[in-house]
Design brief:
Layout: E1 9-10, E2 25-26, H1 27-37, E3 44-48, E4 56-62, E5 65-71, H2 84-94, E6 103-107, E7 117-121, H3 134-137, H4 139-151
Parallel strand pairs: 1-2
Antiparallel strand pairs: 3-4, 4-5, 5-7, 6-7
Length: about 150
């Protein structure tokens, strides 16, 4: 797991003015989005999850609510790469057919945190990074996962 850089999270968009790169999360408009979606109450705490090989993933805690925020990395990005809204649609389509988290909300409005993003339930378990975790690499687990995806 990596650490937050000083410029990864800012309170307001104005706090990033003059920065050498855009922030990954802007807390004030994110809180307004969460309020509108009815997700948690109070201050937001953010912690990076995983190694960030593709989209950026954060564990977000707000009151009693814990959930995951996924967004693309900082620009520049190739066209259609890092489409988190497509990822949210695929996860939603697999719900009830494969072991996937529930998508809580998706936001295509880049003015909220600077990029489209989606929120999903936090699911306990292994984070797959550059190597398959031992618990998921057993032949019976690989078969189960494959069957869920095919039958879904």
């Amino acid at each position: 797991m990596h650490r937050l850089a000083e410029d990864d999270v800012v309170e307001r968009h104005e706090d990033a003015e003059g920065a050498s790169r855009p922030p990954l999360v802007v807390l004030e408009p994110l809180a307004a989005f969460l309020d509108q979606a009815g997700i948690g109450e109070g201050p937001i705490e953010i912690e990076p999850v995983g190694e960030g090989h593709s989209n950026v993933t954060f564990l977000v805690t707000r009151g009693d609510a814990e959930f995951i925020l996924r967004r693309p990395p900082r620009p520049p990005l190739p066209p259609s790469a890092h489409d988190v809204l497509r990822e949210a649609r695929v996860i939603s389509a697999l719900a009830g057919r494969a072991r996937v988290p529930r998508v809580l909300a998706a936001c295509e409005d880049e003015s909220v945190i600077g990029a489209p993003f989606f929120l999903m339930d936090r699911v306990p378990g292994e984070v797959i990074t550059s190597e398959m975790p031992q618990a998921l690499s057993a032949p019976e687990e690989c078969r189960r996962t494959g069957e869920e995806l095919i039958d879904g």
